[in-house]
Amino acid sequence: MGLLVFIDTIALCLVVSSALLQRFEEAPKPDGSLSFLVIGDWGRKGAYNQSQVAFQMGVIGKQLNIDFVISTGDNFYDNGLTGIDDPAFDDSFTKIYTSSSLHKQWYSVLGNHDYRGDVEAQLSPVLRNYDKRWLCLRSFIVNAEVAEFFFVDTTPFVDKYFTEPGDHVYDWRGIHPRKKYISNLLKDVDLALRESNAKWKIVVGHHTIRSAGQHGNTAELVNQLLPILQANNIDMFINGHDHCLQHISSIESGIQFFTSGGGSKAWRGVVNKWKEEEMKLYYDGQGFMSVQLTQTEIDIVFYDVFGHVLHKWNTSKQLHRPS
Ligand SMILES: *[C@@H]1O[C@H](CO)[C@@H](O)[C@H](O)[C@H]1NC(C)=O
Ligand SMILES: *[C@@H]1O[C@H](CO)[C@@H](O)[C@H](O)[C@H]1NC(C)=O
């Protein structure tokens, strides 16, 4: 009896220590497959082709019978939401992504522009209730059996928002002390990745790790997050921040880096040099990305504002990895 209680206590501790990031379960299709769209940097009340992109997402979403949508952040421009009653939530989200195929769960992270508003509003259950599709948290995990998704709050990593905020006021409630926030987050992500048995491990954040766009690589993430992603052999990192569509196939790490930040304002006209053998797509305009995956295969497609295919990529894994 005493031993049982002891074992129970250990088991409980193990569960608690790995349950720091909130988890959600997403049922795959009956055949075990999964499909979803990824959009980033979008909330501009329909302007800058946001509505056109939304329309095409609806078309492709229907074709692929998507299970959910991922938002890579910068959900509401220019300065996030002013509160839970900000009409921007309707004008940039509810009334824009109206196609029936997009009436699925949206899993959203926060971008730096979201941190310039009332962060708590975007995280609030009030908005989740108001539009049932909406789910935005700082960092969390979605387990979809065939794949596990690790959403990471990247804005607090970036030094310049703290040291040179300029005219911007950031809502750092819940982040201080910053060092501890970041170190705890890194620990939680590392642990969750290590414990994951999913066939595909996909990490999502707002900021870039590898990008030839205007913002380039985010040094803080390269230094602090990337080593953890590499050590845990993740399959792909998906971000926004640079307002483009991009696929970098890292030779050194084997990680695929996807930027889906073409949800509205784009055409920045800044593309930096990159190794040709790694750069699979750089598109400076608007659009979005689709992902279809099974136990053995993953298929990625990028689309422009007309729904035309810009780039396709796939890879496969054996059903049972040789040990
Ligand atoms: C909207 O998309 C079209 C087609 O890519 C492009 O020519 C146009 O400049 C875009 N408009 C804006 C405001 O970005
Ligand atoms: C995967 O991509 C290759 C080209 O890289 C293509 O030949 C093949 O048809 C693709 N497979 C599927 C299932 O789309």
From TrEMBL:
Q: Which InterPro entries match?
A: Acid_PPase, Calcineurin-like_PHP, Metallo-depent_PP-like, Metallophosphoesterase_PAP
Record keyword 4Fe-4S present: no
Q: Which residues form a coiled coil?
A: none
Residues involved in Fe cation 1 binding: 41, 74, 77, 243
- The residues listed in the UniProt record as binding Fe cation 2, with positions renumbered to this chain, are 74, 112, 206, 241
State the reactions this protein catalyses.
Answer: a phosphate monoester + H2O = an alcohol + phosphate
Indicate the enzyme's highest-level EC class: hydrolase
* Record protein name field: Purple acid phosphatase
Species assigned in the record: Vigna angularis var. angularis
The gene from which this protein is expressed is Vigan.01G191400
